[in-house]
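hiii, so i know i said id send this last week but things got crazy w the move. better late than never?? heres the sequnce for the chain we talked about at the cafe, plus the structure i predicted for it. fair warning i was half asleep when i ran it
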Amino acid sequence: MRDLSPLEARVVAVLVEKQATVPDTYPMSLNALLAGINQKTAREPVMNVAESLVLTALDELKSMSLVFEGSGSRVVRYEHNLGRVLVVPSQAVALLATLMLRGPQTAAELRLNCERLHRFSDQSSVEGYLDDLAGRAAGALVVLMARQPGARESRWMHCLCGP
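okay and structure toks below
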């Protein structure tokens, strides 16, 4: 799989997030997806993207099998396929989505911010999944960044948009 653009990563992450948080509206319509992408809270960086760019990103994601169109409705709806394409469990998908939506975070921040997608029992379980994602034979999906001056803990960052 090639590296994702920041917009492609945001599209997939929004689909993952909304599947867990608002299952009644999942699969998502283009309008709902656009609202999630341009959401001002719980996003780093905040984006203001036009519908045409989202459609282009969706086409690219469909070509990589990360997103597919749902049928049976008057409106086209979109679903993610991240866990199956990357061959990772739902817990790892939740961590990746949170990193794509909110940027680099410590394991403690991830446990807190991931709670709506998956409730981890403790910080060590988050660290275990992060270590698994970092040590994959098929290529790391997350990386532990160097600790910043004055910070108590190192932050984790996803690698889906490249190193």
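btw The longest strand covers residues 67-70. thought thatd interest u
miss u guys!!
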